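Q: Given only this backbone (244 positions), what sequence would you predict?
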């Protein structure tokens, strides 16, 4: 081997394996992206059997729980508050939009606002939901992103669901949300240990937990929760007529 050939061989040995490094980085990024996509793919939520309630039924409650500190604090709300909950992001999109417009028309006719609790996945696929709520003077709250029950997820998954939802909200509306509804624990007497843990995790991110009652049970200072779907507009109409 000549001296020139030896120099070329040494230079070749020192050359960095840039293509291999790039390939490994790209594959790692793809794996992370696919994992996150799988975690956040919207699903129809499985019903969860709640455990024993953890809140003392003898203690007064309100529609908004602040779980960031100890002891738990409750804030009272507007007696006319209505909560519209989208609990299944897998519902037919056009039907969801139609139900939302029907409910918004009822709220407008009565001059009442509402808080719309929507999964981030539904906001991403149906941005008209956010526009309908905002156009009719409503506030946006969240239930997570994928429709999975936050009470059944570990704390890190709860954080991923909520942070992704906030990113979608910011992109769709230019705002963020600070109200959380747990569809599997919508009332104070359905908050079990798992729901309480999820709510405490959310509180660490700045969320207040909203609890309510069925529309036919609502009295002053309570949130009447209406599930967006068939019959929702009629339910809101009956609720507001009784309250007037």
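A: Predicted residues:
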């Amino acid at each position: 081997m000549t001296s020139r050939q030896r120099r070329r061989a040494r230079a070749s040995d020192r050359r960095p394996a840039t293509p291999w490094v790039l390939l490994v980085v790209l594959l790692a990024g793809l794996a992370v992206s696919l994992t996150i996509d799988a975690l956040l793919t919207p699903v129809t939520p499985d019903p969860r059997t709640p455990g024993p309630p953890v809140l003392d039924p003898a203690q007064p409650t309100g529609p908004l729980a602040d779980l960031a500190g100890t002891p738990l604090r409750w804030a009272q709300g507007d007696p006319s508050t209505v909560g519209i909950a989208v609990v299944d992001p897998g519902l037919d999109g056009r039907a969801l939009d139609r139900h939302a417009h029907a409910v918004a028309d009822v709220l407008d006719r009565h001059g009442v606002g509402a808080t719309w609790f929507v999964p981030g996945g539904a906001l991403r696929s149906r941005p008209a939901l956010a526009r309908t709520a905002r156009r009719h003077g409503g506030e946006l709250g969240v239930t997570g992103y994928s429709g999975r029950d936050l009470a059944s997820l570990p704390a890190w998954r709860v954080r991923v669901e909520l942070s992704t939802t906030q990113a979608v909200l910011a992109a769709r509306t230019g705002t963020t949300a600070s109200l959380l509804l747990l569809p599997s624990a919508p009332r104070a007497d359905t908050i079990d240990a798992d729901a309480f843990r999820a709510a405490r995790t959310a509180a660490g991110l700045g969320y207040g937990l909203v609890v309510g009652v069925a529309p036919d049970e609502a009295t002053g200072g309570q949130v009447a929760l209406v599930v967006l779907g068939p019959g929702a507009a009629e339910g809101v109409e009956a609720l507001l007529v009784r309250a007037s």
